[in-house]
Design brief:
It is built from three helices and 16 strands. The protein is of the alpha+beta class. The two termini are 31 Å apart.
């Protein structure tokens, strides 16, 4: 009888915890851990299932955590447009990156839109010598002026964690968990119906030459503590409404 009661207690605890996790992670609109290590799809583990297709021939290689994608010219990821990626009032993009080469101009990390269009947002590990979160619809002085740090750091042979946040009023850039720059940028994003490109701009330019891993997008600005938590422990937290208990338990154990 005691064993039965204990089992029910564990069951209810896990169900309650899974429900809480699901409620929290509606704000996580894309999570690509890229742990498949094979195939033509990088699976999105957010509740929105924004899976990324491998375009060209990007390579699966050992990553910061398990496997990741090696990007090069003409080899990138593409995510179909969805309402969940139409972010308007707050944004966080974060990823692990190590560049194998610098091109002296721009390498486009994660960009929504076919180039410089309404609704564009983009975290670039290289932008004219720096690192940048770029959002077209913000005031003109916010287009490129928020760049910070040194892109050369991304090509030093080590993995680095970069993040860009925007809360509707301020852009902040973080490198390896430390705030590197901030810029007042008040406004709102007008969504577009274009795909999300990873490792390039619109499948045609601004190619990333290097590795990226653990890519996440949130529809709000994470705090520094939340960014550090993601950096140190990129745990899978998104649970779909119909998730089986066995799946939920597998996620929580990680």
């Amino acid at each position: 009888m005691k064993r039965c009661s204990y089992s029910f207690a564990v069951l209810f605890f896990l169900i309650g915890l899974a429900c809480c996790v699901y409620a929290i992670d509606q704000s996580l609109v894309l999570y690509l851990p890229m742990d498949e290590n094979a195939g033509k799809v990088a699976r999105d583990l957010s509740i929105y299932k924004n899976d990324a297709s491998l375009e060209g021939n990007p390579k699966w290689v050992p990553g910061k955590f398990k496997s990741c994608i090696e990007f090069s010219p003409n080899n990138y990821l593409k995510v179909k447009d969805s309402n969940s990626l139409d972010i308007t009032k707050g944004l966080t993009i974060e990823l692990w990156v190590t560049l194998k080469a610098l091109n002296g101009a721009q390498q486009s990390g994660v960009e929504k839109g076919n180039g410089w269009v309404t609704g564009e947002y983009n975290l670039l590990p290289e932008y004219n010598g720096g690192i940048l979160l770029q959002i077209l619809d913000l005031p003109e002085e916010c287009d490129d002026e928020g760049q910070t740090g040194s892109a050369a750091t991304m090509a030093d042979g080590n993995w680095h964690f970069i993040a860009g946040t925007w809360d509707g009023n301020m852009i902040k850039i973080y490198i390896d968990g430390k705030e590197s720059n901030r810029l007042a940028c008040k406004g709102e994003i007008n969504p577009n119906a274009d795909p999300l490109y990873i490792g390039c701009r619109n499948g045609a330019e601004r190619w990333v030459t290097g590795l990226m891993d653990e890519i996440k997008i949130y529809n709000y600005a994470l705090s520094k503590d939340e960014i550090v938590k993601d950096m140190t422990n990129p745990i899978i937290t998104a649970v779909s409404p119909g998730a089986k208990l066995t799946t939920t338990w597998g996620i929580l154990k990680q």
